[in-house]
Amino acid sequence: MLKKYSILVAGLLGGMGALFGKAKEFPKAEMELYSGGFVTGLGLTTLGNWIPFGGNSAGIIQLGYYGSCWMVDLGLNGVAAPKSSASAFVLGHLGGRNRLYQNLFITYGAMGLGHFASKKPRQNGWSVGAFAGLDYQLSKHFMLSGKVYPYNYERERLRSPHNIFGNSTLSLFYVF
């Protein structure tokens, strides 16, 4: 079901890029335009399903910078599991960012994830891939960001290492 939604979102991103990619930008006098800045926030990702408790998603704390033409962020998650084991992962994005329409941006680039488990070394692993997403800056200080991963390769996983539209991330940021 998640793959169907990911394919739908990717199609919408491509369609919006074709529609608004060359749209005329409104002057600042007509509308208050925002272009991001340093961000911190909370996210929910399906990439973190290495967690020993099971489940299909994980919460992350994110820090980064979203400029008018590029973006970078880093997300962290740590879990203490029963019987003194611990698990943590780090998720990062680096890529471009273009304004589609007023306060709506498209993002694209590369992602990387590292997972570390203290008691189960077989759960240690990493993932690399590409992402595409949309950012909507709700106001001067709040931004909603969604990313889909058209392809990512996962090392040391129990399931297939090749994921096509299998993961996504949704974040709410405070912009400084």
What do you see in this structure?
This protein is mainly beta. It has a single domain (2-21, 38-175), classed as Porin (Beta Barrel), CATH 2.40.160. Helices cover 11% and strands 58% of the residues. The protein contains one helix and eight strands. The protein has one helix spanning 2-20; strands spanning 37-45, 58-66, 70-81, 85-101, 104-117, 125-137, 142-155, 162-175. Strands 1-2-3-4-5-6-7-8 form an eight-stranded antiparallel barrel. Strand 2 and strand 3 form a beta hairpin. It is globular. It starts with a helix and ends with a strand.
The CATH topology is given as Porin
Radius of gyration computed on alpha carbons: 17 Å
Q: What would you call the shape?
A: globular
Identify low-pLDDT runs.
none
Major sheet description: 8 strands, antiparallel, barrel
Cα(first) to Cα(last) distance is: 36 Å
* Count of separate DSSP helical elements: 1
What is the CATH architecture assignment?
A: Beta Barrel
Helicity range of the residues?
10-25%
Average per-residue pLDDT, rounded, comes to: 78
Secondary-structure-based class equals mainly beta
Tell me the strand order in the biggest sheet. Answer: 1-2-3-4-5-6-7-8
Count of discrete domains: 1
CATH class: Mainly Beta
Strand fraction: over 45%
